[in-house]
Structures are given as C-alpha cells and as structure tokens.
Design a protein that fits this description.
This protein has 13 helices and 7 strands. The chain has a 5-stranded parallel beta sheet, with helices on both faces. The chain has 293 residues and is an alpha/beta fold. The chain starts with 18 loop residues before the first helix and ends with a helix. It is 51% helix and 10% strand.
Length: 293
C-alpha cells in the first residue's frame, strides 16, 4: 500500500480526540510537509536549473493534475499574472474532468490515460515548455498519459509526487518526491501531501520569476496593479526602493502605467520613464543592470 494511503498508526483513535488534541494533531502534522520539501530541495533545484533557460527562451509553464494536486496547479498558474505580470497564455493548467472539476469532483476522470495525453497535446507542447505533472500517489493515469505525451513532444517534464518510486517522478526528466508519509486522516492527501506540493510549486515558480528579473532585491517590482490595493502596493514599493515621497512616486508611476520597474529606474537615474523603459529593455528587464548602465 502506498504511504499516502496507509492509515496512520499515531492517530488510530482520532475520532475520540477532544477538539484541542484534534487541532494539535492536524496542525503539527503539517510540519512534516515542510521537512519533506526541505529533503527534496536538491531535486527542486535541479528542476529550476533545467527550466529557467527554457522559460527565458519563450517557453510556457504547463500544469497537469487531478483532484487536489490539479487544483494546486491551477492556483499556481493563475497567480503568476497579478504577482509578476506573467502572460496568462504562458501559464496554463489542465485538470482531469475539465474546468468544472476545480469546483466539483468529477469521479473517474483521473483514470483516463488517453484523455490526459489528448488534453496535453491540445496545448501543442514545444521543447521550451516546462510541464509540471502533479500526483500525490504518483500513478494517476490521467497524469501519466500527459507525461508521456509531453516527453514525446520534447518538453521538459517535472514530476511531483508524494510516494517513493512513484512513476510520475521516475519517468519525468526531473522527478521530485515529497515523502510526506501517512496522513492524519488516512488517504486524505489534501492535507500535508497537498501542503508539500503547494510549497514546492510556490518555490519553483517564484524562483523562476526571480531568475527572470521579476524582482529587485526581494521587492515585487513587476506586479500587475489591477485594483486599488495593488496600486497602493506599487506606490509603496516605489517609495521603498527609491526613497521618493508618495506624491513623487505616484506621479512617476502614472506616467508609466504603474510599472514599478520603470518608475524605480526613472527616479533613481533621474531620467524620463521612456528612457527608463529603454534601459530596461536593453538590460533584459533587470532593474540592477538598468541602473548600472
């Protein structure tokens, strides 16, 4: 039996726990998710190293999964646009059972290996694309079908699973096993297995965005300010990076459609926003390189 499906020997009387003990058991077990990711760090590093040049060359981030794993892939893909201005068409997720499975389980959809292959191929994968194959068990047929199709197309495959020896990790170009073990509630991989997958996806996509100069130091300087909160964040980030007063920061941001990168370079180099934009373009989007030019 897979570890993720094996009942925990530590919590055989879970239903008898008083609430305070139940909460402690559920919360404390999540620490193992962090440890599992930490132990997998060399494999995560290898995946990022392999993926970065492909994405820098124009590749896409493609996510494939079923159930909780698939929904985590959707979540990672959709959050890249507001956070880093990453084009939505370059972060695409497919989920067993279709878009509706994001909100309601579609039973049996994950068992169709041919459907997984077909839906991945419908995205027309290319060699510079990076495909994340997510499956807690590591053997979900839908995901394995997509994996084989992605490899056949020459895309980089990154298999993420929670069981040692998982086919999705063993057959991918880059395999990441997050050995989270048994769950407090047996087989409920929405718990720490899912937490470990979320941490891993956060780490990979964030590291890729840093590598693509989407940050300046640890500042989120390529965000898409689509609401009042994000506009205020853009102003605060610009003030923090340049020392400018709020009125000056806001004025310069208004001249460049609230593109924080451009405002920072314009303010620190005392140039126009058009000149700052040109410097950034010549520096591959790197604020540091633009400032040094």
């Amino acid at each position: 039996m897979l570890k993720t499906e094996t009942p925990s020997t530590r919590h055989a009387e879970l239903d008898l726990y008083p609430t305070v003990q139940l909460v402690a058991a559920l919360v404390d077990d999540q620490f193992w998710a962090v440890e599992a990711v930490r132990l997998a760090s060399p494999h995560i590093t290898a995946a990022i190293t392999a993926a970065l040049p492909r994405i820098a060359a124009g590749g896409r981030l493609l996510y494939v999964g079923a159930g909780t794993s698939g929904r985590l892939g959707v979540l990672d893909s959709v959050e890249l646009h507001p956070t880093f201005s990453w084009p939505p068409e370059r972060a695409v997720a497919i989920l067993a059972g279709g878009a509706g499975a994001m909100f309601a389980a579609v039973e049996g959809a994950e068992d169709d290996v041919d459907q997984g292959a077909a839906e991945l191929l419908a995205l027309l994968p290319q060699p510079n694309d990076v495909v994340f194959l997510l499956a807690a068990s590591g053997a979900t047929p839908y995901v394995l079908g997509a994996l084989r199709a992605a490899r056949g197309a020459g895309a980089l495959t990154v298999g993420i699973a929670n069981n040692a020896g998982a086919p999705v990790a063993m057959q991918a170009d880059c395999g990441i096993v997050l050995d989270t073990g048994t769950e407090v509630i047996s087989g409920s991989t929405r718990l720490k297995a899912g937490t470990a997958q979320k941490i891993t996806l956060n780490t990979i996509s964030s590291a890729l965005m840093v590598g693509l100069h989407k940050t300046y130091g640890n500042l989120m300087v390529d965000l898409k300010p689509t609401n009042a909160k994000l506009i205020l964040r853009a102003v605060k980030l610009t003030m923090h990076a340049t020392g400018a007063e709020e009125a000056q920061a806001r004025s310069v941001l208004e001249q460049c459609q609230f593109h924080v990168k451009v405002a920072i370079v314009a303010l620190l180099k005392k140039i126009t926003t058009d000149q700052a934009q040109a410097l950034l373009a010549g520096a591959g989007g790197s604020v540091r390189s633009a400032l040094a030019a």
